[in-house]
Amino acid sequence: MALLEWTAPYRALAAPLMFLTFSLVVALPPLFLHILLHPLTYLPSPSRPASYQFAALRSKFFYYSWRYLSPLADPNDAPKKRPLLAQARGTVLEVGPGVGDNIKYYNRSSVDRLILVEPNVNMHPDLLKKANAAGFSVDDSSLQLLGCGGAASDETALAAAGVTFDSVDTVAAIHVLCGIPQPAHAIEMYRRFLKKGGLLLFYEHVRSEESITAYMQSFITRWIWTQTADGCCLDRPTGAWILGGPDAAKGEALVTGLEMVNEAGKADGLVGRRWSKVEIKRPADHQRFSCIPHIMGWAVKA
């Protein structure tokens, strides 16, 4: 038992290392083939510098890996996502839906309109197919697919598409706040998009509360994870930003946001400020030394 406990942080590395290995195996062959078939697309030019080409290749690589990994991960995530997303209602804004494996969990009779914000346009054909299968369509205006990002810097582009403050009933963030630039400010923007009483639904992986695991998360993120997972970071204190806003996580004490809630998962001290009701918790299958620990919950805009 002592040996198992001592090796737990190191065994926790298995999940991200397996993800990286599988990504390389499934994504590199089609990526190389794509480059061979479209070599001129990735040659630097005055209008498309090398940095632009690298970003395009990174997005393509992530698509090739995520189209396989997302369906594989979905059965394990389904018990968490299904009851969470079933709460969505009215006009729903989902940020970073990827290849669309969350869409089937929405209650079609409760969702009038679904706005999908996905900057990786390689994902769009999969998104449209799965949205149509779930009963959403561009033709009847129940579906809107946007190619802009969900970062705070994309506020103007979102507004041009009709996504403005106090305009949506639900915002869904599922495995996306880990990769958005300036995430704390993006979360605040989503809160402002919500109407009064609107719901923010979230299921995100976050920084570990265990110091040794948190160090591993930061090391992996800095040297390889961000580049292979399209900007994803393993070590963000996302829960603290959701609960307390952009300034909430400046201190090292706030790691997940769980420090800001009571034993029932309620953030009573924050009620009436940013949110009227909040619930945040660990999933039932949480493992203490996991390098990809999760939080999930909901918040009602005050």
From TrEMBL:
Domain of life, per lineage: Eukaryota
Name of the protein described by the UniProt record: Methyltransferase type 11 domain-containing protein
PANTHER family the UniProt entry points to: METHYLTRANSFERASE LIKE 7A (PTHR45036:SF1), METHYLTRANSFERASE LIKE 7B (PTHR45036)
Protein keywords: Membrane, Transmembrane, Transmembrane helix
Pfam families for the chain: Methyltransf_23
CDD domains linked to this entry: AdoMet_MTases (cd02440)
Regions that span the bilayer: 12-37
